[in-house]
Design goal:
By secondary structure, the protein is an alpha/beta fold. It has 2 domains: about 130 residues, Alpha-Beta Complex (Aspartate Aminotransferase, domain 1), CATH 3.90.1150.10; about 240 residues, Aspartate Aminotransferase, domain 2 (3-Layer(aba) Sandwich), CATH 3.40.640. It is built from 13 helices and 14 strands. The strands form 4 sheets. Strands 2-10-9-8-5-3-4 form a 7-stranded mixed beta sheet, sandwiched between helices. A 3-stranded antiparallel beta sheet has the order 11-12-14. Strand 3, helix 4 and strand 4 form a beta-alpha-beta unit. Helix 12 runs antiparallel to helix 13. The longest helix has 21 residues. The structure holds pyridoxal-5'-phosphate. Pyridoxal-5'-phosphate (PLP) binds next to helix 3.
């Protein structure tokens, strides 16, 4: 048994995120008949409001799955065995999606990028222009790379496809940006948007999402990859009447229904502004400590998380462990090539200024406790910013 600790645990990883009380209470409702009239009403209400969050007028497919399931679903519904997928490859989650693509029998091509910068759109455009035979059937990008805190320019990728007249499907992972950062499925011409439940949406892990464009729905007709559980067609058919072809994750839908209410009550514009402002406050704290933000392009700073570079010779995971033991706060570990080199501060989801202030205080106390070379008072910079900037 873990020792009992007073106060609440600070879960400041970039997902899963903290559950708002309203969401926790919604989760605890009794389970209902997933073929009854109450369920159908809930489905319609959730699906209609999800469209607002994805900024699409098209359908949103919800799976009882993690984000990985959403990745696989996007691929198997639209592509055929051996099809070439070009991945913007600048982080651990892009690599993860590539593995799924290779696993279902697709040909993976990497457009290698520096992890500390967004994918170079000029290089992307050159590769697309070169592909005269139109072998690339899909371009896949991670909007907000959760391993690095770097944001890729999705509208820019769309423009590169359009300028080269390339017909590849544009697939985008928004698992850690949806409902935290402005993301426009329709306006940016995305063909399949992939999301998950446990980050900006403020509900537990367990739901995966696909938002397909009309072009993606058309691609289904010729897509030859085997699919059954992930098949959009059957789900969308059942959704017409408010149902699913399997038992949906009913209590997670209660949670989603409540979280959507919260997001729309606050207003998406305000939700995005809150995340942007708290991200700025976090970066001010990092600089105040004399440390570096891992992302080197200020136009590409994530609003969901900040990856902080540890001074040479100091292990980020030792710092994280001390912060967990002493101050009961979980921070994100460095993933892949960044293991031990960075720690990640999650600042997305159900956050207010004092949650952020407590988080930053925990980091500053941890730096001091571990004798990590830094300047005290980074928190002061963040507080001054938060106090002045409403
Ligand atoms: C968390 C995350 C995922 C993975 O989702 P799982 O629910 O763990 O399968 C995928 N992509 C990004 C960008 C993420 O942040």
């Amino acid at each position: 048994m873990a020792q009992t600790r007073a106060g609440r645990h600070f879960l400041q990883i970039p997902g899963p995120t903290n559950l708002p009380g309203r969401v926790q209470r919604a989760l605890s409702r009794p389970t209902i008949d997933h073929r009854g009239p109450d369920w159908a009403r809930l489905t319609f209400r959730v699906l209609e409001r999800l469209q607002k969050v994805f900024q699409t007028s098209g359908p949103v497919v919800v799976y009882p799955s993690s984000g990985n399931g959403g990745w696989e679903a996007a691929l198997v519904n639209t592509l055929s065995p051996g099809d070439r997928v070009l991945f913007g490859s600048n982080g651990q989650f892009a690599s993860g999606w590539q593995k799924v693509a290779a696993g279902v029998g697709l040909t993976v091509e990497e457009l290698q990028g520096d992890w500390s910068c967004p994918i170079d759109l000029a290089a992307l455009e050159r590769r697309l222009a070169e592909d005269q035979g139109r072998e690339i059937r899909a371009l896949a990008l991670v909007h907000n790379e959760t391993s690095t805190g770097v944001v890729n320019d999705i509208a820019g990728a769309r423009a590169a496809l359009d300028r080269t007249g390339h017909d590849a499907l544009l697939m985008v992972d928004v698992v850690s940006s949806l409902a935290a950062m402005d993301y426009r499925h329709d306006e940016w011409g995305v063909d399949v948007t992939v999301a998950g439940s446990q980050k900006g949406l403020m509900i537990p892990p367990g739901l995966g999402f696909n938002a397909p464009s009309p072009k993606a729905l058309e691609a289904v007709k010729t897509a030859g990859l085997p699919r059954s559980y992930w098949d959009w067609g059957r789900i969308l058919e059942f959704n017409q009447d408010g149902f699913y072809p399997y038992t949906p994750a009913t209590n997670l839908f209660y949670a989603l229904d409540e979280a959507l209410s919260m997001l729309l009550e606050e207003g998406l514009t305000q939700v995005f502004a809150r995340h942007a402002r708290q991200a700025e406050a976090t970066r001010r704290a990092v600089r105040g400590w004399g440390l570096d933000v891992y992302c080197r392009d200020p136009r590409a700073y994530s609003h969901s998380l900040t990856a902080v570079v540890m001074p040479a010779g100091y292990n980020a995971d030792v710092l994280r462990q001390v912060i967990l033991e002493r101050f009961d706060m979980s921070l994100g570990t460095g993933l892949g090539q960044l293991k031990g080199k960075v720690f990640r501060i999650g600042h997305l989801g159900d956050m207010n200024d004092l949650t952020l202030a407590g988080t930053l205080c925990g980091v500053e106390m941890g730096l001091a406790a571990c004798d990590v070379p830094h300047v005290g008072g980074g928190v002061k910079e963040a507080l001054a910013f938060l106090a002045k900037d409403p």
